[in-house]
Design goal:
The complex is a heterodimer. Chain A has a five-stranded mixed β-sheet with strand order 1-2-5-4-3. A two-stranded parallel sheet of chain A has the order 6-7. By secondary structure, chain A is of the alpha/beta class. Chain A has one domain: NADH:ubiquinone oxidoreductase Nqo5 subunit (Beta Polymerase, domain 2, 2-Layer Sandwich), CATH 3.30.460.80. In chain A, a hairpin with a 4-residue loop joins strand 4 and strand 5. In chain A, 23% of the residues lie in helices and 25% in strands. The termini of chain A are far apart. Chain A contains four helices and seven strands; from the N terminus they run H-E-E-H-E-E-E-E-H-E-H. Chain B is flat, with a radius of gyration of 19 Å. The N and C termini of chain B lie far apart (61 Å). Chain B has a domain of 124 residues: Rossmann fold (3-Layer(aba) Sandwich). In chain B, helix 2 links the parallel strand 3 and strand 4. Chain B is 33% helix and 13% strand. Chain B has six helices and six strands. The interface between A and B is medium-sized, with 14 and 10 residues.
């Protein structure tokens, strides 16, 4: 199974909706409209020639400079039969980070989406239990968004002068 | 006649407390005896979360052998133990659990923070990490190091034995101690 074959298969089905075809380090990468993420994944899952039935990873990236599409959700899918991997991206605005949940298609998406919500605040529409998974429940922000400093803001004994920052 | 081979000739015995001694009796003050007994039979409760825990395992092992100082048996229940050894990074999500463990220990209880992470948060100056366990429970001895060597941990325990040995029997009932616990919202 070659990248060209997967690209051809997807273009036949979805046409111009899939954009930004790339192959960094040989791994086929493309962007899908946010509303189409489930349709594309379902097609990748069901199509007899594609069979991408394993969700390796699901995470998000924050791009503060991309106005209107600040948050990117990245899916890594794996075809275990042909040992082929692809990377699928969607972009959503940070004000309304609504993404359809993949947890009905892949059970593994359940916790990964909770983690992505926990750190980036992506709202997975239809998720059965979208609550924080790793951070404390009292946390009132999404720490991996780039507007927040890495250091613990509650710390009082470390000032910038002392550490040359 | 002595035995032909003498093993363990370098045994150190704890010094007898001051007091009056005579034929068939020995009189001294109660808190000296209690301090002596407590200091030399501390029951450790290890709360090991990362690499300092490995150093602590070496401390308990045969080479460094913490048992020499009367802390032979680790109790893996807080209800039996006197000495809580927090070894490793404590995440903020772990903090309520650590606090619960501390609350379940019976008085008198002592706490040692082993390593930079337990003492101050260490290199993890970051949002999920508790910046020192003294934010949630009172700490008696801090052991520096990242991680400290077993000698360091033993030194910390000897320091704690000093504290235990010289602790007044009335300390746990004092206003000062109650104030300390209240500052942590305990009781």
């Amino acid at each position: 199974m070659t990248n060209e074959f997967i690209k051809q298969k997807l273009t036949d089905k979805f046409g111009e909706q899939i954009t930004n075809w790339e192959e960094p380090y040989g791994m086929l990468t493309f962007t899908v409209p946010a509303a189409q993420n489930l349709k594309v994944m379902q097609h990748l899952y069901d199509e007899e020639m594609l069979r991408f039935r394993f969700l390796t990873d699901l995470t998000a990236v924050h791009f503060p400079d991309r106005k209107g599409e600040e948050l990117s959700v990245v899916y890594h899918l794996h075809n275990l039969v042909d040992n082929a991997r692809i990377r699928m991206k969607i972009f959503v605005p940070i004000e309304t980070p609504d993404v359809f949940t993949a947890s009905q298609l892949f059970s593994a998406a359940n916790w990964m989406e909770r983690e992505t919500y926990d750190f980036f605040g992506v709202n997975f529409v239809g998720h059965p239990n979208l609550i924080r998974i790793l951070n404390v429940d009292e946390m009132d922000y999404f720490p991996m968004r780039k507007e927040y400093p890495m250091e613990d803001p509650t710390r009082i004994d470390k000032d910038d002068e002392m550490f040359g920052r | 006649m002595g035995r032909p081979v003498q093993y363990n000739t370098k045994i150190k015995i704890v010094k007898m407390p001051d007091g009056y001694t005579g034929e068939g009796f020995f009189a001294t003050s109660f808190d000296k005896v209690v301090g002596l007994a407590r200091a030399n039979s501390l029951w450790p409760l290890p709360f090991a979360t990362s690499c300092c825990g490995i150093e602590f395992m070496a401390t308990m092992g045969s080479h460094y052998d913490l048992g020499r100082f009367g802390a032979e048996r680790m109790g893996f229940t807080p209800r039996q133990c006197d000495m809580l050894l927090v070894a490793g990074t404590i995440a903020k999500k772990m903090a309520p659990i650590l606090r619960q463990v501390y609350l379940q220990m019976a008085e008198p209880r002592w706490v040692i923070a082993i390593g930079a992470c337990a003492s101050t948060g260490g290199i993890f100056d970051s949002y999920p990490v508790l910046q020192g366990i003294d934010q949630v429970i009172p700490v008696d001895v801090y052991v520096p190091g990242c991680p400290p060597r077993p000698e360091g941990i033993i030194d910390g325990i000897l320091k704690l034995q000093d504290l235990v040995h010289n602790e007044s029997l009335r300390r746990r009932g004092s206003e000062q101690y109650k104030g300390l616990l209240e500052s942590y919202n305990i009781q």
